[in-house]
Amino acid sequence: DHFSSGEYERYKKIFKDIFRDHWDDFKKSNPGFDTDQYEEPVQKMLGCGEESNGYGEYICMHCGKDRRRVPFSCKSCFCLSCAKKYVDDFVGQICTMLHFGVIYRHVVLTIPEQLRIFFFKERHTKDMLSEFIRCGYECLEDVINTAKRKLSLKIGCIVVVQTHGRSGHYNPHLHIIMTSGGVDIENEFWVDLGYFNYNIIHKKWQYYLFNMLRSYFG
């Protein structure tokens, strides 16, 4: 949204050229990336908008002469063109899950640099990231119950895991949309969270994260 169409196409070409020129050498130096998991989205991105990967052809119904070919998009979340639609669709899906009149908070839970190597070694398995997501939810539910003086509240959460930061470095972290409060199960009424000391999150997250790692790795 911040670039003109010409600038956007120029940056998209630069992005593709980087991979065309260096992807094969990068895989040789980093064999852990020489798998279908990485190869497939890269090749899709490189072929996005290329006629050689398929196209739709349109003809003017009046003169029958004017023909236009529109190359197919790759629909990959790794592609600069297609990722925007991917994100828009995801945001639209999330909006349908939110409840009218409920206040939500955005919380990011990350891990210290010294622990990222453990996640990196398990990056091709789903179990650890699943535990990571569950750990984040349990932590925040404990945070709210602690902030509200040990009430037994159930909260609502939408948790998304990202494995890389903006710089491209491996940095697993959780983006969480959580309800600003919860349901008192015993008395069946809603309790607003209001203000609370955010240091509770800091301490609770340390506790839950280390327990998760200790349980996972034995």
Describe the main β-sheet briefly: 3 strands, antiparallel
Unreliable stretches: none
Lateral strand order in the biggest sheet: 3-6-5
* Class computed from helices, strands and strand pairing: alpha+beta
Number of helices, where a helix is a run of at least 4 consecutive DSSP H or I residues: 6
Report the portion of residues in β strands: 15-25%
Classify the oligomer. single chain
According to DSSP, the number of beta strands is 8
Helicity range of the residues? Answer: 40-55%
Order of helices and strands: HHEEHEHHEEEEEH
Radius of gyration: 23 Å
Mean pLDDT: 85
Distance between the termini: 47 Å
What shape does the CA trace take?
Answer: flat
Give your account of this protein's structure.
By secondary structure, this protein is α+β, with helices and mostly antiparallel strands. The protein is built from six helices and eight strands; from the N terminus they run ααββαβααβββββα. The strands form three sheets. A three-stranded antiparallel sheet has the order 3-6-5. The protein has a three-stranded antiparallel sheet with strand order 4-7-8, with helices on one face. Strands 1-2 form a two-stranded antiparallel ribbon. Strand 5 (157-164) and strand 6 form a beta hairpin. Helix 5 (127-147) packs antiparallel against helix 6. The protein is flat, with a radius of gyration of 23 Å. The mean pLDDT is 85.
